[in-house]
Amino acid sequence: MTVQIITIDGPSGSGKGTLAAKIAAHYQYHLLDSGALYRLLGLSLHKQDLIDSLDTQLESCVKIATNLDIKFVTNESGISVLLDGEDVSKIIRTERVGEFASKVAAIPALRTALLERQHAFAQSPGLVADGRDMATTIFPNAQAKIYLTASAQSRAERRVNQLQAMGVDVKISDILANIEARDKRDMERTVAPLKPAPDAYFIDSSNLTIDEVFTLMTNYIDQQLAN
Ligand code: DC
To answer: Where does this protein have coiled-coil stretches (predicted)?
Structure first.
C-alpha cells in the first residue's frame, strides 16, 4: 500500500505547526514536525558546548546528530518531546533554541544526518510533514504539497500571542527582528533553502483564520488524494 504524503512548508509563524497537527488528525496520518528535530539537535549541541563550534567540530556534531536520542510521545496534553529521556517540549519552543536550530539547519552535513530519521516517519496510512524543505528535498514525490506563508508582521503578532499564552513576556519589535533574521538565513542558505516547490499549492494566511486555512487545505488535499 502506498503511503500518502502531505507536505506543509513555510516560514515560522505561518500557522504550519497548528495546521499540520489538525490535518494529521483529520486524515489520521502520522505527523513529522521536522523543525522540532532541528531544535532538538540545536539544544543537544548547545548542552555539549558545541553550538558555537559547528564548523570546527563538525565530525563530533554529525555523530551526535546521527545518534540523537529523541522520542515523540502522544498524551492528553498533545505531543511531548523527549531528549535523552528528559521532557524538553517547552524549552525547544523558546527563541533561544530557535536560534540554535537555525544555525544547525544551515550546515549541510547536519541536514544530511537528519535525513534518514525524517524518511522513517513515512508510514502507512500516511504522513503530514511540516518544515521548510519537505516538498523540495525530503519528500519530492508527495501527493499534496502546500506552501503556507504570512506577512512578517502578522507572524510576529501570532508569535507574541503564543508566547504570552505560555507566560513569556516579549516585545513585538524583538520578535519581528528575530523572524526577519531567521527568514533571511533560512531563505538564503545554499542547502535546502526555504522556497515553495514549483508544484506547491500556495496559501497566504495573513488575513485568514485557522479554520479558513484548514478548509482551503483539505479541499486541495482531497483533490490531490483522489487523483
Ligand atoms: O519550524 P521551526 O521554527 O520549529 O524550525 C526551527 C528552525 O529549523 C528554523 O530556523 C528552520 C529550520 N528548519 C529547517 O531548516 N528545515 C526544516 N525542514 C525545518 C526547520
So the answer is: none
Handedness of CA 30, 147, 152, 15 (dihedral sign): negative
Residue range 13-63, pLDDT digits in tens: 888 999 999 999 999 999 999 999 999 999 999 999 999 999 999 999 999
Instruction: Give me the domains of the chain, ranges plus CATH numbers.
Output: 4-221 (3.40.50.300)
- Residue whose CA lies nearest to ligand 1 atom number 6: 35
**Residue 197 alpha carbon to ligand 1 centre in Å:** 16
**Residue set of the binding site for ATP:** 10-18
Classified as helix, coil or strand, 125 is coil
The protein residue with its alpha carbon nearest to ligand 1, atom 3, reads 12
SS3 category, 208: coil
**Protein residue whose Cα sits closest to atom 16 of ligand 1:** 132
Name residue, grid cell 508566547: 163
Q: Cα(149) to centroid of ligand 1, in Å?
A: 14
